[in-house]
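Quick review question:
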């Protein structure tokens, strides 16, 4: 697989930013108290989103024999007052379908 072709075909930056917006909207809607705790010292409207990295991952951890899990990982850093405080990671299968995503403090 040619990674650069995959990234262009799926417009990875646009795709991950759209997924991040959806993630944050759903997080706030589903558990506003936890959302507010996560962003407790941050003015949410002042958060900057910086596309950080993308990687083609071949993972064989916890796989049997020759099995491998292959996927694309895209990361966005959340910055506030010029400091990174969280990172969003989206996992896509090789067809461009979202498989999972995470938001974590850093």
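Suggested answer, residue by residue:
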């Amino acid at each position: 697989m040619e990674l650069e072709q995959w990234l262009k075909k799926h417009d990875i930056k646009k795709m991950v930013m759209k997924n991040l917006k959806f993630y944050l909207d759903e997080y706030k809607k589903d558990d506003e108290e936890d959302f507010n705790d996560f962003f407790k010292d941050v003015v949410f409207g002042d958060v900057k989103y910086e596309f950080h990295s993308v990687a083609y991952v071949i993972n064989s951890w916890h796989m049997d024999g020759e099995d491998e899990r292959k996927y694309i990982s895209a990361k966005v850093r959340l910055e506030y007052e010029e400091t990174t405080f969280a990172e969003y990671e989206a996992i896509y299968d090789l067809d461009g379908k979202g498989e999972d995503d995470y938001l974590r403090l850093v």
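Why it works: Residues 3-105 form one domain. Residues 86 and 105 are 4 Å apart (CA to CA).
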